[in-house]
């Protein structure tokens, strides 16, 4: 017998029952559903909407269900459609017809919205914590490898040498903004829809403030139709999550490159790599590849929900049931990705022999040599031209800039003096960039200190 069976004369078609049911996935909201019901029934009793004694009986019944759910001892059935009706059925079985008073002044429409808000509030807070942990791992790694210099790239061509720490801290900046985005999304997640009823509010003298306080919400939806049809808070979460995955994916791409023989900048820990079933020599960066790969499904969930919502008239429509699986999958994907990614960075080692060789065997100090001539009085455009020719000369000779003799330099410009060699020493080149936000060690140390302060305040 369906909870809504009164006006029906026929049983539901079996496939329809399966098609419309959400219990296979929304049972994940059972804890939140019970939490919401406990607050609702407390309010019903306190406001005299149902006798206090009935409220107490219902509360005891709900606590029993909670225990059973936690013990894995609460069977759910497709016939009862969703987590809300499965739990109500169980409650009535547990305490008798008085259990039917729980749904007074409430609809599944405001109930399911409440469950989603409660669920995301918890998960977003946890994800912000995992992101903060990643920022701390990157800050620690930056300190550990503060002396390492790598080529910095534009167009994936060697551009100017930078501290590896500067590269790490660029990502720390992205993940710190991700924490802020999650915290900002939380402001809209932290809103209480219960009390909206099906769409129009209720005839009972409910106390929404009391329920909100009981559940720890800071704000209440001011319009009942908005409360039951709003899914912006999930969209915001999915957007923030998509940006997190995009950041992880960019970094993963670099780790895949950096751990290749061609780059050889880092050695990923064996615990974070896998092998090949045929090629005995292989050690593959699967975690980095798979985090990169899973980015697509999270973007997909964002687009899927945007599309579900785009043509929906107010207020509740069954389409909204499609908000759940993508959100659950996003939470799970993000959690695993963040945990594994942080572990991979934490355990990764830098191969200094390769980073040192890389910064010696390139022309990424050419800008500094041009700046050198500018300091000797040459207009930058002309200096650029001179150094361009010098680089061409080096390529022809199979040499790098530090290998040229002083006489060779003089042949290109009389402004060159012996101090030119110091000007193109890679260490000096890096240390000369202590402008605010630059890659010099002093500037990087200031950035690290900034992250340490921020972390301490979290
Ligand atoms: N399972 C539904 C959902 O997830 C709950 C709300 C159903 N409300 C309704 N009027 N059919 O959206």
From TrEMBL:
Classification via SUPFAM superfamilies: L-aspartase-like
Domain of life from the UniProt record: Bacteria
UniProt GO cellular component terms: cytosol
Fumarate lyase N-terminal domain ranges (all copies): 6-300
One annotated GO molecular function: argininosuccinate lyase activity
Enzyme Commission code: 4.3.2.1
Positions of the Argininosuccinate lyase C-terminal domain: 363-431
Keywords of this entry: Amino-acid biosynthesis, Arginine biosynthesis, Cytoplasm, Lyase
Keyword Transmembrane: no
Gene Ontology biological process terms, A to Z: L-arginine biosynthetic process via ornithine
Top EC class for this record: lyase
Pathway involvement of the protein, from the record: Amino-acid biosynthesis; L-arginine biosynthesis; L-arginine from L-ornithine and carbamoyl phosphate: step 3/3
Subcellular localization, as worded in the UniProt entry: Cytoplasm
Catalytic activity: 2-(N(omega)-L-arginino)succinate = fumarate + L-arginine
HAMAP family found in the cross-reference section: Arg_succ_lyase
Family assignment from sequence similarity: Belongs to the lyase 1 family. Argininosuccinate lyase subfamily.
The name this protein goes by in its record: Argininosuccinate lyase
